Amino acid sequence: MRAWLIAGLAVLASACATPPATQPDNPEDATQVDTCGIARFQHLIGTRADQIDRATLPQGTRVITPEMAVTMDFRAERLNIMVGTNGIVGSMRCF
Known about the structure:
CATH topology: Trypsin Inhibitor V, Chain A
Radius of gyration: 21 Å
Number of strands: 3
CATH architecture: 2-Layer Sandwich
Largest sheet: 3 strands, mixed
């Protein structure tokens, strides 16, 4: 009985000792690691935002314009496309 208890505790301890895979905690790290698939969409930089076929973007992508209000919740898997006042895509980040 005691051996079963010790074996069970050992299994439980080893399961708790391995930390789960985590995502980056900030947009800079998430973009560097490319948690949102940003590399596939780099070709959009310099194009007019109104010419982007949004059906080709990952679900949850935000096209952010200067006058747009956005939530500040951090989701490393979310692609954010930043558009300048001229309507041109200027940058992208994962957050």
